[in-house]
Design brief:
By secondary structure, the protein is an all-alpha fold. It is built from 16 helices and 2 strands.
């Protein structure tokens, strides 16, 4: 593989510019703050309003794959800038939507496509600049996404209280547009084969091999990673979608105000977990970190099942928040490690569809099984899935180790100098 040292390229400026943009587009996940006031203002039912978020999540794989295709062809800045401005426009247009059709087109379609394009561009372009710190870079990038709701939710609540939900969408969308434009000035496209100064790429069996998507989907590693990601995202999405309802259910009996505090805590842990687990995975290895994550997820769910108290709820959602963040931070790096940086954009876009599958089923299972205020069944399902993820990761680790050993054994022995 050819390498391209680029000492004049400030990869940290690219990283922080990307984080700033994703701290805007990540506001998409604060929709629950807007949903009630929007329903009251327009007279729409809550299911009608929440359909906008469902559409937004459902189209996720489209911009992820499209954005990845653009990134892999050197168009990262285009993907990021266009996507960021589409998101801002969708946010603002939601503020003036007077029909559910307008709502679905603005928040569901336009903002959803924009958020995915910006996310794909920021994540995959930045990862190519940090081959030596993939987990850390992925953690910081996705952490910016996760931290967005921690900031956006209270800001939105304050604007809604002092003005209206329409004003909140319009004002925040305008600010996001400005931030996207300014932050994009710091972005640079990652050169093909970029090697940071002072870092030597791994050689031999550990060397990266660039595999296009058509080759990736023919490998067992892809299916392991795909299922592992879907399983890992399931419990986090289940809690994220129902956190307030679970807190106020008969199992825990918390007030609406206390539940809101815990939702913010969960969001903060989600953001922190992406950074922490990303750094941990660089030191311990991605699969070792994942096995730890699945273990903590299982234990956190067990606490929620067995401890119907405020303390039990706090311990459970903190553990799940940290681990859900870890899942989102590790899998981009794990994909690059196994299939190389050259086609990372579209490859991770395809892997990311596992998240969308989980996003479709997890909230529905939690909502349908928790109708009577008892979430024991979905918690048990999540525990079982965490066990499945742990076993899959263990098997995957052994399969990859055996493959690496076979490659090393098949490699020609290095030539030795003859005796004098």
């Amino acid at each position: 593989m050819s390498t391209t040292p680029a000492p004049t390229l400030n990869r940290w400026a690219v990283l922080w510019g990307s984080v700033a943009i994703l701290m805007c587009t990540g506001a998409i996940y604060s929709f629950s703050v807007f949903a009630g006031p929007l329903s009251g203002l327009r007279g729409w039912t809550m299911p009608e309003v929440m359909m906008a978020f469902t559409i937004n999540a459902a189209i996720g794989p489209i911009p992820m794959i499209l954005g990845g295709w653009i990134v892999d062809r050197g168009g990262a800045r285009i993907s990021i800038l266009v996507g960021g401005l589409m998101f801002a426009a969708g946010f603002m247009l939601t503020g003036i939507a007077t029909t559910t059709t307008m709502l679905y087109l603005s928040y569901g379609l336009l903002a959803g496509l924009g958020q995915g394009l910006a996310y794909s561009g920021c994540l995959n372009n930045t990862l190519k600049l940090f081959p030596d710190k993939r987990g850390m870079a992925a953690g910081l990038i996705t952490g910016g996404m996760g931290a967005a709701s921690v900031i956006a939710a209270p800001v939105a609540q304050a604007i809604i209280k002092s003005a209206s939900v329409s004003t909140a969408f319009l004002a925040m969308g305008a600010v996001y547009a400005v931030v996207v434009v300014v932050a994009s000035l710091f972005l640079r496209v990652a050169p093909v084969g970029f090697v940071p100064a002072g870092w030597t790429p791994p050689q031999g069996a550990g060397a990266m091999v660039n595999v296009p998507w058509s080759g990736m989907v023919k490998t067992p590693a892809f299916y392991f990673i795909f299922v592992m990601m879907g399983v890992g995202a399931f419990s986090g999405l289940m809690i994220a979608s129902q956190a307030s309802g679970i807190a106020q259910s008969a199992m825990f009996g918390l007030s609406a105000a206390t539940a809101a505090v815990f939702v913010s805590i969960y969001s903060a842990c989600n953001a922190l977990g992406r950074i922490v687990w990303g750094a941990v995975s660089d030191r311990l290895g991605y699969t070792n970190a994942l096995m730890m994550i699945y273990g903590v997820v299982g234990l956190s769910m067990l606490v929620l099942v067995t401890m119907s108290s405020t303390v039990g709820f706090a311990v459970g959602i903190i553990g799940l928040g940290l681990c859900f963040g870890g899942v989102m931070g590790i899998f981009p790096a794990l994909t690059m490690k196994n299939f190389g940086p050259r086609f990372q954009g579209i490859n991770y876009g395809i892997v990311f569809t596992a998240y969308s599958v989980a996003a479709f089923f997890a909230p529905r299972i939690a909502a349908s099984m928790g109708k009577e205020g008892d979430y024991t069944q979905p918690f048990v399902i999540a525990i079982v899935l965490a066990g499945v993820g742990l076993v899959l990761t263990l098997v995957f680790t052994r399969v990859q180790a055996a493959r690496a050993a076979a490659v090393a054994a098949a490699a020609p022995a290095p030539a030795t100098a003859g005796r004098a």
